[in-house]
Amino acid sequence: MMEASKVIHVRNVGQEISENDLLQLLQPFGAVSKLVMLRAKNQALLQMYDISAAISALQYYSNVQPSVRGRNVYMQFSSHQELTTVDQGSQGRKDQDLDPNRILLTTIHHMLYPITVEVLHQVFSPHGFVEKIVTFQKSAGFQALIQYQSVHCAIQARDTLQGRNIYDGCCQLDIQYSNLSELQVNYNNDRSRDFTNPSLPTEQHGRSSQLGYGDAGGLYALHPSGGRAVTMAQMNNAAAVAAAFGGGLPPGISGSNDRCTILVSNLNPDKVDEDKLFNLFSMYGNIVRIKLLHNKPDHALVEMGDGFQAELAVHFLKGAVLFGKRLEVNYSKYSNITPAQDAHDYVGSNLNRFNRNAVKNYRHCCAPTKMIHISTLPQDINEDELISHVEDHGTIVGTKLFEVNGKKQALVLFEDEEQATEALVCKHASNIDGNTIRISFSQLHSI
How much is the pLDDT for 129? Predict the structure, then answer.
């Protein structure tokens, strides 16, 4: 049997199959860092971010025949452990020569629906605070410049969104780093926007004066605009959900929700803060922002990464009990939480669970249970130390320490779901002997 590798070898890749088609097969299991199309051999090589992602992908596709555009493709571990620049040759993906920059130049291909500043903001804002957007028309097609508050956010957005479609089957994003240091925005309208300066005029008449950017006024005005824009984290959910739930959705989940912000009420204001809500809601998706409402101390807004993740949270947490209060969890009338001093931002948090291995995390989504699963524990921890760390949250019925791939993990069974939920919200991301532990609900019923 071929030795496990980060690099996956794909055969029977017809000429009709694009790089993006192959990315959609593998990105639900983790980030793809390199891709080589071997057109002469009808083959491709894809390097995953880490070896566990490659193993998860091949384990899944050993039971499900991958098919692209009606053609079966076949996967196995490559004899390469890494793809080098030499391996990629002239057919590999050509990364930008430009250094990473907080301004992204985005070209939109196969543009069947009009793309406005609002659509672009909805697509790019989950990855960080977008300061400015300018759209324009060039010979390469419809383009946009998106300026983030930080280079880190721009890198994350490019890595996540490159090659994705805004609408099903069209409006594909081709993202590069810009060489500009600052965008100049003179008007706030559907072609340009400065989100840091809402007082700019709308320039309702005449042409845009965005010197050097061109003009996109009236572009595609005759095309239908009936498509629904969704955030890019949602674009690949279908494949991740299929992998996690065996091709279908969990009972009671429609998969059609597009509202990302949740209103949580009947909280215990004396015991709840933003980080505790993050620990709970991050069980169901990545968290963008959380805001406690000062005029209603038992209310909070939670903005999830996309509508599907929000639907999971609403479905599984409605009626859950936390700190003696039964939570009311519903969709908010607000589409997002505006960045502000009283809104905690979690976009760049490495504690967001769905940045990698989304398939595994979707599989673990469930309503609160009596049992929690704890990982990334110190290797030398014993049961007494484990119990001491969590026993202040309720009566512990049983514990079990074990190892997976040489890493210490544990199951802790509480007397009821409320106690386990309290332990999760209070102790997820806490520290034991220098280890930041991770906690999730376990769907096992006994130890």
Answer: 92
List Cα–Cα distances, 419 to 48, 394, 414, 423, 426, in angstroms. 38, 5, 6, 6, 11
Please list, in sequence order, all residues whose beta carbon lies within 8 angstroms of the beta carbon of residue 222, skipping any fewer than 6 positions away. Answer: none
Q: How far apart are CA 239 and CA 218, in angstroms?
A: 35
| 270: its two tokens | 């004396």
User: Rounded CA gap, 81 and 340, in Å?
Assistant: 45
Radius of gyration of the chain from its Cα atoms, rounded to whole angstroms: 23
Q: Where are the alpha helices (H) located in 137-236, listed in sequence order?
A: 151-161
Q: Six-digit token pair at 301?
A: 């807004």
Q: Walk along the chain (447 residues) in steps of 10 and give the mean pLDDT of each run.
A: 86 83 80 82 88 87 83 90 56 51 88 81 90 82 90 90 79 86 86 88 50 29 31 48 62 81 97 98 96 95 93 94 96 92 92 81 89 95 96 96 89 96 97 95 82
Q: Helices 117-124 and 151-161 meet at what angle, rounded to 10? A: 100
> Which residue has 């009311």 as its token pair?
328
Terminal CA-CA length for the chain: 34
Token pair, residue 8, equals 């996956």
Q: What angle do CA 76, 77, 81 make, to 5 degrees?
A: 160
Q: Which amino acid is at 260?
A: C
φ/ψ (deg, to 5) at 438: -115, 135
* Closest C-alpha to 55, from 359, 311, 272, 413: 359
Contact 146, 232 (CB under 8 A): no
User: What's residue 239's pLDDT?
Assistant: 54
Task: Identify which of 380, 376, 369, 384 has the alpha carbon closest to the alpha carbon of residue 431.
Answer: 376
Q: Which residues contact 40 (CB under 8 A, 6 or more apart)?
A: none
SS3 for 57-84 is HHHHHCCCCCEECCEECEEEECCCCCCC
The reported pLDDT for the residue numbered 433 is 93
The bridge status of strand 43-48 relative to strand 7-11 is antiparallel
